[in-house]
Amino acid sequence: MKYYFFLLLLCLSVPGFSQKSKIDFKSIEKNLKNSESVYNYDKLIFKYKGIPKSLDSIEAQYLYYGRNFEANKLSTADDDFKSLAEAFKNGNFDDCIKIGKVLYGKDPTNMDVLLILLRAYDYKKDVSNFTHHLSQLRLLADAIKSSGDGKSEKTAYQVNSVGDEYIFLNILNLGEGYTRSSKTMKDGVLDLWEKENTKIYIKVLYLGF
Question: Can you tell me the distance from the alpha carbon of 81 to that of 73, in angstroms, rounded to the nearest whole number?
Fold first, then answer.
């Protein structure tokens, strides 16, 4: 299934949610912590883990950007993630799955973890788990797509991390030849990716309320 994974991953580049709306981070933080809200984190994560396709565009947006307000989110600088990355680098996919499942349990919307799990399940020809996590990754990618159109600074796609930015660029199927310029903003860094007449704006969020 070597090329099966990449073909399915490129399917993420088809149009996702058409709704483009300004993200209200204050509302996201408030509702995720409110047990009575339909956007409560535990309620959303339950649907996300069970049937990711059951979440609508607003729920997906709350879940993806709500990760900024989770205290236990995983960083690529953490030793646990480094162990996962090392197992993947060495082609030890059994360890990838073992470590990845633990990290997924701690931080289920981490796109880096999801991507490595997808590669491991692809190698092991585990179609069920592969398809499930692919649906989750597609949901998170669609949440990013709903944040803007990437055509200007004001309508830039917004991502939670640099890692998410590069995953999203691959999902958009942007190949080699693009150059990046960056500008620091009060709530993040705005990256402009250019190639000939094509420009894509992506903001990497650094939220501090």
Answer: 11
**Do 162 and 204 touch, CB atoms closer than 8 A?**
yes
48-94 per-position pLDDT tens digit: 999 999 999 999 999 999 998 887 788 888 999 999 999 999 999 99
Per the structure block, which two tokens stand in for 140? Answer: 């998170």
Scanning the structure block, which residue is given the tokens 């729920």?
59
pLDDT greater at residue 201 or residue 208: 201
H or E stretch at 193 = strand 188-195
Domain ranges of the chain: 2-9+22-145, 157-205
> Which one-letter DSSP state was computed for residue 150?
S
More confident site: 187 or 128: 128
Quick one: CA dihedral 180, 133, 188, 17, positive or negative? Answer: positive
Give the type of residue at 76.
T
β-pairing, 157-159 vs 179-185, is: unpaired
Q: How many CB atoms lie within 10 A of CB 15?
A: 7
Q: Which residues pair with 181 in a beta bridge?
A: 192
3-class SS of residue 17: coil
Contact (Cβ atoms closer than 8 angstroms) between residue 191 and residue 201: yes
**To 10 degrees, what angle do helices 162-171 and 111-123 make?**
50
pLDDT in tens, 160-193: 999 999 999 988 888 788 999 999 998 899 999 9
Indicate the pairing of strand 157-159 with strand 188-195. Answer: unpaired
Q: What is the DSSP letter of 14?
A: S
